[in-house]
Amino acid sequence: MGLLHRNEVWHAWLFRATDFCWAAVAALAEGGAVTRPYEVGAAVAFLDGAPDRARAEAAAERLGRRVREERLVVPGPAPERVEDRPQPPEQGPGVPLQVHDIARTPGSLARRWFTDAEVERSLDSLVAAQQEDGGWPPHRRSWTPGATLEWRSVATIEALLTLRAYGRRI
Q1: Per residue, what are the HEC states of 101-144?
Q2: Which of 46, 60, 81, 125 is the least buried, fewest Cβ under 10 Å from its Cβ?
Q3: Where are the domains of the chain?
Q4: pLDDT in tens, 108-151
Q5: Where is this region: Disordered (predicted)?
Q6: Half-sphere exposure of 49 toward its Cβ, with a 13 Å CA cutoff?
């Protein structure tokens, strides 16, 4: 929805879908539901493009407090797997999100949640994760080797776009 708003796409269902997103973001920020890091990423994508900027900033501030309190995003180099953090059974252990996974650009509302040092450490770890052939491994849990290959291209494009947004050259 954030992408559609940012690109000024209009359709009749946009109003209901936007209301749904506002409600979902509020539930995440208020702790009304179990929060998964990928839900935070989706909320940030919506808030970064939401047309009501004052409301988006207020919601992002509340969500950011929850993210920090519950350590939903690792503010430094991430361990390989999250085994010490309880996970819902349907999610299982996985790789945690890092700062650069949530605050993909310096202009993102999520960027405000982290210090300059945390952002720099996260970007350093992103650069260090580049593999010998120039690509990046997917940070999502892979169920099959084929899924790993499919997500690798997405991870590489996301890494390159994030590094470019922050002015990093590799």
Answers
A1: HHCCCCCCHHHHHCCHHHHHHHHHHHHHCCCCCCCCCCCCCCCC
A2: 81
A3: 2-165
A4: 999 999 999 999 999 999 999 999 999 999 877 778 888 888 89
A5: 70-96
A6: 16
